[in-house]
Structure formats: structure tokens, C-alpha cells
Design brief:
Strand content: 15-25%
Helix content: 25-40%
Order of helices and strands: EEEEHHEEEEHH
Shape: globular
Number of strands: 8
Largest sheet: 4 strands, mixed
Distance between the termini: 68 Å
Length: 183
């Protein structure tokens, strides 16, 4: 028996992630330097960055998506997020090198929420924003997180140095060592 499948140009997106968050509109988000790591909080998610390379890759992904976001969300007043069956929250720790950020965009006609989506995936975290306000909140969050990371790890250039072409050095960097404290 032979099974024939018709080819299609519209394959569904495959998402491989440990934690996903969908965001619409301006939202409260914070990044702080604490316990030799950078802790980020946003609706339903906490991310602890304990290695400089994920901080760099994530900032680079969000910063590189600015032009795409402006085009994608032109004319979109407010986005939409799927309503979960219950309150969901999660925590993710980025404590080792990760592949470069993957930035994808979906126009409204291909989006499951019928609003445009910008998706940025780094190290097991998938962040989906559905309007310019949500994008701006996330760009500000990851810029602040990167600034903290650049203060924490000397091998990371500042945001201003990155803008003029400086690159980080990772070959000599290890994640911070945590030493147990005797009780």
C-alpha cells in the first residue's frame, strides 16, 4: 500500500522550547543583578541568566528584530494572547552557551491568534509578542538585562560598544561557581 501526501508550501511551524510566553501590550518586566546572575521577571515567567553568552545572544536577537517588528506591527493597535485554562508560570535558568537567537514573524493571516506575531527563541525560552507595545517592553527588558550582564562579566562589551562593532569574548568564560555555605 502506498500513501500519497500532497505537497504544501504552508507547513505548520514546529516549536521546540522548554518555556513559552505570549505577551500583548505594555507589561511590567524587570531585570536585576542578584547573586552573581541576572534575574528577569515578566508576566508568568522568571529567567535567571547565569552565563554571559545567553545574555549576549538574547539581547542581539531582540535588538536585531526592531526593524522587523516595526514593519510587522504597522497598523496593529493591540495584539492578542491565547487564554490558558489556568494561570501558568515558569522559571528557566540559562547557565551555559546557547545557539544564536531564532527570530520568526507570522503575519496575522498565518497566526493562530489572528494577530501578527514576532517570536524570539533562545536557549529553551520562546517569547511571542503580538504588538509593538509588547515588543518594546521586551526590548527594554533584555537591554537592561544585557547592561547588568556587561557589568557582571568583563568579557561583554557595553551596549554602546556593541553598537560600534565590539564583540564579546567567550573562550575564557565559565559560569559562576556557587560555593555551598556551611550551616
Amino acid at each position: 500500500m502506498h500513501l500519497h501526501l500532497a505537497p504544501t508550501d504552508h507547513r505548520p511551524l514546529t516549536v521546540r522550547t522548554d518555556l513559552a510566553v505570549h505577551l500583548a501590550g505594555h507589561h511590567e518586566a524587570h531585570a536585576v543583578l542578584i547573586a552573581h546572575t541576572v534575574l528577569l521577571t515578566m508576566p508568568s515567567v522568571r529567567v535567571r541568566v547565569a552565563h554571559p553568552q545567553p545574555a549576549y545572544e538574547t539581547y542581539k536577537g531582540w535588538a536585531s528584530a526592531a526593524d522587523r517588528a516595526t514593519q510587522l506591527f504597522a497598523g496593529t493597535k493591540s495584539g492578542a494572547v491565547p487564554v490558558p485554562d489556568g494561570q501558568v508560570s515558569g522559571h528557566l535558568r540559562l547557565d551555559r552557551p546557547v545557539p544564536p537567537a531564532v527570530v520568526e514573524s507570522l503575519p496575522a493571516k498565518l497566526s493562530p491568534t489572528r494577530t501578527p506575531q514576532l517570536r524570539i527563541s533562545v536557549g529553551g525560552l520562546l517569547t511571542v509578542v503580538t504588538d509593538m507595545a509588547a515588543f518594546t517592553s521586551q526590548l527594554n527588558l533584555w537591554t537592561t538585562a544585557y547592561r547588568h550582564a556587561a557589568r557582571r562579566w568583563s568579557n561583554l562589551p557595553s551596549v554602546e560598544e556593541l553598537a560600534v562593532g565590539a564583540l564579546p569574548r567567550f573562550e575564557d568564560t565559565e559560569a559562576p561557581a556557587f560555593i555551598p555555605v556551611a550551616a
